[in-house]
Write a structure and sequence with these properties.
Keywords: Iron, Iron-sulfur, Metal-binding, Oxidoreductase, Signal
CATH superfamily of the largest domain: Dimethylsulfoxide Reductase, domain 2
InterPro entries: Asp_de-COase-like_dom_sf (IPR009010), MoPterin_dinucl-bd_dom (IPR006657), Mopterin_OxRdtase (IPR006656), Prok_Mopterin_Oxidored (IPR050612), TAT_signal (IPR006311)
Low-confidence stretches: 1-34
Bound molecules: ligand MGD, molybdenum atom
Family: Belongs to the prokaryotic molybdopterin-containing oxidoreductase family.
Distance between the termini: 46 Å
CATH topology of the largest domain: Dimethylsulfoxide Reductase, domain 2
Protein name: Tat (Twin-arginine translocation) pathway signal sequence
Oligomer: single chain
GO molecular function, one term: metal ion binding
Mean pLDDT: 92
Length: about 800
């Protein structure tokens, strides 16, 4: 396209010519219309093509970060392959989103030019405007809102993938960035008080999977949601590890497992509690661990439900919002037959029992746990979860008695029901009673966290001067449609309003009530139609300069290098932030270029972390942008138990005093908000509507890849029984609806689902549906007790009942 033939041409001068050509093209297109021309035309062979390769770190929000090798021919990305620069070759990975990037980068549905809304919000009528007008309109509107309604009236939020390197704008003007995220922390809320605030992320490596005798994949489908991390699971399978998947759906992961437990949606805690019951009734628990590492021997006052503690204050539980510092717990010493402090070295604490002290009836936590378990039965667990009693007992036996065991939790699935904290609290009990924690091949949590499985780098973080910081967030974004708030103007990078909240009709009604809303996105995402101003960002593969993001992933530091100029009239996020900052006279606080940012992040990093020695900007460039961190060996992870748990007594604390008043001192079972068998709503809306990740997309991202749309548009998986009862066959358009909204999708009748349960990949942009979109029916119920939890109420996307009919 550029006509450049000289391969020694510098990258910068190369960009200058091609950038001008691309900008010229962009002017031809009417706003919103396809801007095709040469940019989107198929590549042509050139007599003397200029070809080069470049590398970059791909997406993070699939929790991966593969390094990709891109072949660029005549300034067009033509081939994407796994990196050949990874020192550890097992990390030369790619998935179909990486391979499909060519179709994604050059997609018709890229946002191409800045646009201004002309129709009503939601109608999607836009006209093209200049960058100058767009930037000024946004800056003026945000400032105007602040002048009229105060600083806190502006909301600026970046979607995860867009916000990884920097997020300056919200800080520059003290904007509200949306408070509690409400995502992926449902079980975490229940695990935290027991095991510490970040305990939902495993503190062991998934490379230890092969050391486990048993792995339970609890509502996790790594074969799609952690595709390139499938290797440790498959290594374990080969090594003979017994893999059990608990999922309402027969997933790819279930297919590779030894056993699949088709749980009824929203009832996982019943399985775990059935296991607890079997473990306690059969004496399969680990007394030594319970006494040394858990609160099982701590004393509780039966009458008040309060823990019996010393007067001397120790510390508040860091995972309870507004918690007061508490005293140290007492245990019952069987030698002196009296209460002593839990860490008394000479005492021999009782695990069970009841004693009267100063008129108080004191019992141990384990006694309370046993009494609670006496109130439940295995047949209840089976009836509630839909899993046979004997299957639950066998799983408990295998988990407790057969060597090291891992529970690898998914942050989708069971996490996205209002009762997820009860599930988290229940699994905390399971590890506490069995000691399956903090040793090789044993553990609990999400195992595919970025950086936790391979050494990660320490990089300098670009910090703004102190006076620039986020404003307060008195109301979380998911609460904004329901709770009074002072937001009048919004700017989002990505489709937060349609993705990071359930019940889209409520959210979008609220968005429509704003004075102003602008969006910066790469594609025509679902939220775009509601914006007043739309700015086109470029992909990771495009940049105004020779380098782009600096990231660390898979034990390597990666600097994106030598890609192509921004397509159409798009710009990089950094330049967009700078243009806006300039309107407020603050652009000098931001890095001028990605190069400056990368140099800053690397400069002096070796002083923070000796492993960064020699990993400099120039060295990275000389190495194609990729350098490995020094090997740390298999056991680089800290011993899970050496320093104890991040709880006031540094042991696993099982009894949640702060929830005792609400009946949840122990994880007393609770139905989900909507998805439960005896819900009267089931008469009208009899089907459970579950969602999950798709290997084709990262959330809604990659929807614009036409190859994927052809193969995988919005499709509703349903069981043959449910389809037949409604006269539906594969390929039919079906309407999915409940009292919150509706949408139309294509039916995909198959045996992966038990009758009564639907599944759909979350989600795809509104423009690919014939009518409505998935988020119209999802649930936005907020759990009241969630407000006192560390991560706040979580969005219960899966806690949904619907009905389906032929459209
Ligand atoms: N390809 C791809 N990978 C991704 C992402 C992506 O968008 N695309 N997103 C990333 C993000 S942000 C996250 S949070 C993780 C999530 O990772 P996962 O938790 O593995 O993802 P999901 O597919 O949302 O949910 C897992 C499974 O939960 C099942 N499920 C639904 N309801 C229930 C239930 O009540 N009980 C049980 N046991 N299972 C249930 C679904 O059928 C699904 O198979 O994935 C990450 N990885
Ligand atoms: N119904 C339903 N909804 C769900 C879920 C569910 O299970 N069901 N799961 C949820 C989960 S687990 C999560 S974590 C959230 C994820 O929600 P997010 O954190 O918002 O998701 P991302 O995929 O990181 O961001 C997607 C948006 O950012 C844009 N984007 C991507 N890269 C860039 C970039 O470099 N620059 C700019 N400016 N924009 C970019 C994309 O075009 C897209 O609009 O979604 C949740 N939504
Ligand atoms: Mo997530």
């Amino acid at each position: 396209m550029s006509g450049a033939r000289n391969s020694t041409l510098t990258r910068r001068s190369f960009l200058k010519t091609t950038g001008a050509a691309a900008a010229g093209l962009a002017c031809v297109g009417a706003a919103g219309a396809a801007l095709s021309g040469e940019v989107l035309a198929p590549a042509r062979a050139h007599a003397e093509g200029e070809e080069r390769t470049a590398h970059l770190c791909h997406q993070f929000h699939c929790l991966t970060g593969c390094n990709l090798k891109c072949t660029i021919r005549d300034d067009r990305i033509t081939l994407i392959e796994p990196s050949d620069l990874m020192v550890d070759k097992k990390h030369s990975t790619i998935c179909l989103r990486g391979i499909g990037e060519v179709a994604h980068i050059y997609a018709q549905d890229r946002l191409k030019v800045p646009m201004k809304r002309v129709g009503e919000r939601g109608e999607g009528e836009f006209v093209q405007i200049s960058w100058d007008e767009a930037i000024q309109t946004i800056a003026d509107n945000l400032k105007e809102a602040q002048q009229k309604y105060g600083e806190g009236s502006v909301f600026i939020r970046k979607s995860t993938e867009a916000g990884i390197e920097f997020d300056f704008l919200a800080q520059l003007i003290h904007a509200d960035s949306g408070g509690n995220w409400g995502l992926d922390r449902g079980q975490a809320n229940g695990l935290g008080p027991a095991l510490g605030p970040w305990s939902y992320l495993s503190n062991r490596s998934h490379w230890e999977f092969k050391d486990a005798a048993t792995i339970i994949e609890l509502s996790h489908n790594p074969l799609e949601s952690a595709m390139v991390w499938s290797r440790p699971l498959m290594d374990a399978k080969e090594a003979g590890t017994y893999i059990v998947t608990i999922d309402p759906r027969f997933t790819g992961t279930a297919a590779k497992s030894n056993e699949w437990l088709p749980v009824r949606p929203g009832t996982d805690a019943a399985i775990i509690q059935g296991m607890l019951k079997a473990i306690v009734d059969n004496g399969w628990y680990d007394e030594e661990f319970m006494l040394a590492r858990t609160s099982c021997p701590y004393l509780v006052d039966r009458a008040t439900g309060k823990s019996y503690r010393s007067a001397e204050v120790v510390a508040p539980n860091p995972t309870v919002v507004g918690a007061e510092p508490v005293g140290a717990p007492f245990v019952w010493d069987t030698v002196t037959n009296a209460p002593v402090l839990y860490d008394n070295a000479t005492a021999v604490p009782a695990l069970e029992g009841e004693w009267t002290v100063d008129g108080m009836q004191l019992v141990t936590e384990f006694t309370l746990i046993k009494e609670w378990l006496d109130t439940i039965t295995l047949s209840w667990a089976a009836q509630t979860s839909g899993i046979d009693e004997q299957v639950i007992v066998n799983l408990a036996d295998r988990y407790a008695n057969n060597g090291p065991a891992i529970i690898d939790i998914g942050l989708g699935g069971a996490d996205k029901y209002t009762n997820a904290d009860v599930l988290g609290h229940s699994t905390a009990l399971l590890v506490a009673l069995t000691g399956q924690y903090g040793k090789k091949g044993a553990g609990l949590g999400s195992y595919c966290g970025l950086g936790s499985n391979d050494p990660s780098a320490t990089l300098n973080y670009w910090v703004l001067p102190e006076e620039y910081h986020y404003g307060e967030s008195p109301v979380a974004m998911y609460d904004m449609p329901y709770q009074e708030n002072n937001i009048h103007a919004a700017l989002t990078f990505g489709d937060a309003f349609t993705l990071e909240a359930g019940a889209a009709n409520d959210m979008l009604e609220w968005v429509k009530s704003l004075d102003f809303f602008a969006i910066v996105d790469l594609y025509h995402s679902s939220a775009v139609d509601y914006a007043d101003i739309v700015l086109p960002a470029c992909t990771k593969f495009e940049c105004e300069e020779n380098v782009k993001q600096l990231r660390d992933s898979m034990g390597h530091v990666m600097l994106a290098n030598g890609m192509v100029a921004p397509l159409f009239e798009s710009k990089s996020d950094l330049q967009i932030e700078r243009l806006l900052a300039a309107q407020w006279g603050l652009e000098d606080l931001l890095p001028e270029t990605y190069e400056e940012l990368a140099r800053f992040m690397l400069d002096g990093a070796a002083e923070l972390d000796p492993r960064m020695e020699g990993i400099t900007y120039d060295a990275l460039l000389a190495n194609g942008g990729v350098m490995a961190l020094p090997e740390t060996g298999e056991d680089y992870l800290p011993d899970g138990l050496a320093e104890g748990f991040l709880t006031p007594s540094t042991r696993i604390e099982l009894y949640y005093e702060y929830l005792a008043d609400q009946g949840h001192g122990l994880p007393v079972y609770e139905d989900a908000n909507e998805a439960y068998e005896s819900n009267p709503k089931k008469e009208q809306f009899p089907l459970y509507f579950t969602q999950g990740k798709s290997r084709y997309r990262i959330h809604a991202y990659y929807s614009a890849n036409e190859w994927f749309q052809e193969d995988f548009g919005p499709s509703l998986n349903m069981a043959p029984e449910d389809a037949e009862a409604r006269g539906i066959v594969t390929g039919d358009d079906v309407r999915v609806f409940n009292d919150r909204g509706s949408f139309v999708a294509t039916a995909l009748v198959n045996r992966s689902l038990q009758p009564g349960v639907l599944f759909m990949a979350e989600t795809t942009y509104t423009r690919y549906y014939k009518e409505g979109f998935l988020q119209n029916v999802t649930n936005s119920a907020r759990l009241e007790r969630g407000y006192s939890m560390f991560f706040g109420p979580q969005i219960p996307y899966n806690d949904v009942l619907v009905e389906v009919e032929k459209a």
